[in-house]
Amino acid sequence: MPTATVTCPTCNTTLQLTVEAMPPVYPAPPPRGFPTPPVYQPPPPPPIYQPPVPQPVAARATPPRTPVFSAQRPLPPPPQPVKQVKQTTHHRRLSPQATLLSLGVLLLLAAGVTFLAVTWDSLPVPVQAGIIGTLAALAFAGSIPASRGKLAGTAEALAILGCGLLTVDLYGARALGLVDPNAIDGLTYSAIVFGSVALVNLLMTRLAPKVVTYGVTTVIAGQLPLPLVLIDRTSVPVLLLALLAQVVATVFLSSKGTAIVRRTGIITSTVVFCGILVAGVARVFAGLLTKYSFDYRDLTGDVFTDAVLRSVVFTAAVVCFAALVGIVLLRKVSVSRGVGEAVCAIAAGLAVATCLPQLPGPGRWLTTGVATALAITEILLRFRRTAAILHAAAITVASVNLLVCVALEDARQLGFMAAILAVLAIFAALRKAVHEVPAAAVAGMSAQVAIVVFTLDDFISLWAGAISIALVGACCIGLACRYVGAPLERILIGSAASAVLLAEIVALMVSADTGTGVVLTIAAAPLVAYGMMPDRRPALLLAGLFLIIANTAFVLAAGGTAIEWYTVPPAVVMIAIGVLAWRDQSSWVFLGPGLLIGLVPSTLIADGNDSWIRVTFVVAAALAVVVLGAQLGLQAPFVVGAAVLAKVGIWQFLEVAPLIPRWITLGAAGAVLLAVGATYERRLSQAKQAARWLSALR
């Protein structure tokens, strides 16, 4: 341990200074494989004061290390508490200035009305109109310096007062005879009044642009003159087209004003635009009621003529054009356009769907074609912005077309609509526009509904309907083979089950036996392929049952009496199903049922009197089965065939036994007993060996 001698500069005393190494306070060195962090040396400490007689410290047997001094740093000052500023919520209250101005305007109006009520009769009409006009002009004029002098409330109050007095003055002039009522009708005069108010307020917006009342009044009052002038002078399509032009002009002009003017323009344009759509759709729908129903003639007030048809067509065209303009305006104006575009599409769809059935000839067919075209376009453009508009229009046209066909009891049109829906569902699933599960359900059910409706409408015969529905079920089962274990499989199997049931019901209407056989045979064919799947083996049993029932129905229809018509085909079906599905099981499982059904009934009725042909075929079949069982090591064919041969042989012997002399019978029996008794041990051993061989068969 290092030791140094130091002389005190004050008292000249010799001091012994020993520096002792302290253990390091930094963490242990990192493991191998990692770079060693740099070691930073602390600054040299100040000299340490020692007493005059130091005591040396013995050296330790430790390696020298870098001296480290644990000088405690001063603690930081405690944080000062932060003064929380209490946030005050400012509640909007009614301004005293606004209250005073409103009361002042009301008092002025009350004073004017009181003055006119008291002294009106003593004044001539021009003087009366002049007084009110002068007051209105003074109010308008007073709002100009008020708005420039930062008296916004006063300016707004004077503007409202001026607009009210001007409107009262104009209407009062006509009511009191200053304007002849016979010279101009009420609607036209109202248009003049609102036009004058709009023009005056437009002029005031130039003189006092900060007054909100003038801009809002200009926008609102400017909407009224055009409909008031055209409402009884032109047709509905022209009126709607003029209002549409007014809406476009309002949106364009109001967009150049202040925020409140722009907002007012959007609101008024929306109201007028919705009125255009509602009025146009109502006019087209009234034409539809006029054409197809006599119960609403009093309501519509029209008789369906060529002029009415032209008006309806032009109105529908204007509604469609207005919807297109509305969609364009919505995309130009920064407002929520999802709902607006849907409303425009629905209005256009309603106009088209109610207009096309009124056309002579294939009117409703055109509606169906338009709905189909919209649906196809929507599927093709599913990822674009216009897909939502097409979706709303397609649903609207299809729904209205459906309601019209139901109301008119047009079953054939409904059938074609269902068939088109099935095709569109398949097309949408192939294009990945919809999920395959609902698409498959809609396609299967729509196809069945279409065929049933065509059958009920006598568009196709009952035979064609039953076979068509059965083919739909067969197609569903065939498609289910590709989706085993998927959610789509259950939908397809369910559609197939309903199709087979409907086909059987239709078949029972035309032929209970032959129709049943045809339907079940068509359904059983794909079931065999479906049952070949390892997890769907029970479907083979259902297919076999269908084939057996179909065979029985065919035999009954043909009037067959031989029992083999009822047993041999089912036996062949069961043997084929067993070989396909369960050939790795015991032969009694996959061959036993078919062999028993095919051979036992014929064996029981086989005799030698009048059915020698049956006996011959039964013996041949049993012999072939026995040989096959022995060659392949199958127990069921060998046992069944041997039993059949034994029964036939014993029965034949019993039939000829009465013809044999008794001594021959007794002698043969005695010879057999002697032979068995003489070779009993060997015969017993052979019997046991045969039993073991038979039990070893599969």
From TrEMBL:
Residues 29-55 have a biased composition (Pro residues). The keyword Ribonucleoprotein does not apply. It comes from the Bacteria. InterPro entries: SCO7613_C (IPR058062). Keywords: Membrane, Transmembrane, Transmembrane helix. The chain crosses the membrane at residues 100-120, 126-145, 157-174, 186-204, 211-230, 236-254, 266-288, 308-330, 388-408, 414-430, 437-456, 462-484, 491-510, 516-533, 540-559, 565-582, 589-606, 612-630, 637-654, 660-680. Residues 29-90 are annotated as: Disordered. NCBIfam families: SCO7613_CTERM (NF047321). This is Putative membrane protein DUF2157.
